[in-house]
Amino acid sequence: MSVAALPRSPLPEDKAQLLSRLTDGLDPGALWWLSGYAAGLARGGVSGTDAGAVSSAQAAAEAQDAARLTILYGSQTGNARRVAENLARRAEAAGLDVRLARADAYPLRELAKERLLYVVISTQGDGDPPDDARGFVEFLAGRRAPRLEALSFAVLGLGDSSYPQFCATGRRLDARLAELGARRLFGFGEADLDVDATAVPWMQRALAHARERLKPPLPPAKVTLLRPRVDAAAWSAARPFTAGVLVNQRITADDSAKDVRHLELDLAGSGLDYEPGDALGVLPRNPSPLVEAVLETLWLDGDAEIAHAGETHTLREWLTTKRELTRLARPFVAALAARCGDGALRALLQPGQSEALRQLLETSQPVDLLQRYPAEWSGEALVAALRPLAPRLYSIASSRAAVGDEAHLTVAHVEYATDTGVRWGAASHWLATRAEGETVEVYLERNERFRLPADPDRDIIMVGPGTGVAPFRAFVQQRRESGARGRNWLFFGNPHFRSDFLYQLEWQAALKDGSLARLDVAFSRDFAGSPHMDVRGVAQDARKKTYVQQRLRESGRELFGWLENGAYLYVCGATAMARRVEDTLRDVIVEHGGRSIEAAGEYIAKLRDEHRYARDVY
Ligand SMILES: Cc1cc2nc3c(=O)[nH]c(=O)nc-3n(C[C@H](O)[C@H](O)[C@H](O)COP(=O)(O)OP(=O)(O)OC[C@H]3O[C@@H](n4cnc5c(N)ncnc54)[C@H](O)[C@@H]3O)c2cc1C
Ligand SMILES: Cc1cc2nc3c(=O)[nH]c(=O)nc-3n(C[C@H](O)[C@H](O)[C@H](O)COP(=O)(O)O)c2cc1C
Q1: Is the distance from the beta carbon of residue 467 to the nearest atom of ligand 1 less than 6 Å?
Q2: Cβ(427) to ligand 1 under 6 A?
Q3: Cis link prior to 219 (omega < 30° from 0)?
């Protein structure tokens, strides 16, 4: 947390600078102690020996705990954060004393003192918590979790009903808080990708309960932020910026199984001042052959006007820009099963069938099911059964210091064949097929958890196979432009050296000019001798199938040395890869750090707490 980020400081410049120096680098525990100390001073109490003043300050602090609402959030891509911030703003406007904290900035020992707690948390991976809430969730699940009889709470889970483990993290947390003796104020909220449909009524209930319990004093209290304040972005999913496509270039060879695109977008006039680590949200349009296939399958008129939830558009417009047609989700399967009455489809929705359901959700699109299970549909019923079309995020692969008013993306085109034809991913196909001169609608999604070290002398280790390499192109550009002296080490992997080495020439140039100290590559399907570049960029042979985690293991001693020396570690790309990389990291710490498995886990947790280990996985 930096002082510069605090809202409207009442301090004179010299004091503000002093405070900035004092708080720089303090952990959340120390910052909390400091805030308590200042509160004691404000109450005219605390001095080193004045026990009476301390106990009156304590009593005041306890009274304050009882009269305060704490809102915690765990968020990977910003949705839960936005809901939590929104709730905090409303609570503040209602005159409540409210404290808003990202879960990893929350001092866990405070939990036993809380009286009213709201948690807004998403689910990631395969039912995993978001990275910023891993410590909090593990603490609550563990034996050290305190009894919480004095606490009242409510939990809002965010998720995506196309995953079988829908909102699993929030649900587990909700159950655990009750198990620890806390009182559930109202039932667990489950928000799907159309987050606001559930979050808005949930917030209204939460606010009503908070008002009732805390009976706001006047004048209104202030929100205490336990995370850096981020300026409200001018552009959002609801109000995107229209960016011109400057370049759309395939960067895998024509004979590669993967079609990966390098896109350069023109942000001039947007005022979007992204930082390395941030992502762009892209508003896709569904492929028109898919829209027509749905209309034909159901014998529906694409020009018919359909009114739904206060909006009227033609059915074709609904299906092209407003409804998910590429991702299948459980509620649609349930709606179809109810409509066609098919027993096998119904059976899939029963508890205990989650593996079969997962298979179906991962490999089919709504049109596949509509063709397989014929049923009567009206345009209205179809629009109501399909989920709203959600934006997709793409890591920004450039640094503004290097490219000015542009943002570069590295996009893997999702394209695969089925018995009934080619299928595409909505956003990657939309982006892959935009010609230079055409436009796409975008907004900025900040990612405060995924930042270069503030200290330019620190080393960084980047693990980014496939399109996971995108943010590291931004990192390396930024460190080159800013003249950072810390070393940069990149691990990259993909199937084939010859056809899939994304940005190969740029990495070789970076090795030459020193902006990469080291590059280790793993080409998993080059069985007979996959090249591996050493510190000098010299290709070496490795005669077995390799993935980045094997490269990490092979370089375990150096890797551990870099970490011991204060390096930051970043991992970006597929969820399963990131899990294997973390397993390997644990092994490396055991082998080269001489620690037990448990201690290695703590070492990793400490890296995470110090923001020296960050992941961006999808
Ligand atoms: C923070 C973040 C950063 C990201 N950065 C990047 C990035 O830099 N580059 C990048 O390319 N992506 C990135 N992604 C992923 C990106 O957001 C999209 O999820 C991805 O591009 C797919 O979206 P889509 O709309 O094309 O496909 P969707 O329309 O979302 O999905 C298509 C559907 O097809 C199914 N499917 C896919 N392949 C097959 C197959 N072979 N057989 C059967 N079914 C299949 C899928 O299960 C899915 O249901 C990032 C994601 C996040 C969260
Ligand atoms: C890689 C990845 C994995 C996900 N896994 C799940 C999951 O297992 N269950 C679920 O309900 N949602 C899952 N989601 C969906 C997110 O929970 C959903 O997009 C949510 O709105 C994100 O909120 P956040 O931005 O606060 O993290 C996943 C999303 C991503 C990107």
Answers
A1: yes
A2: yes
A3: yes
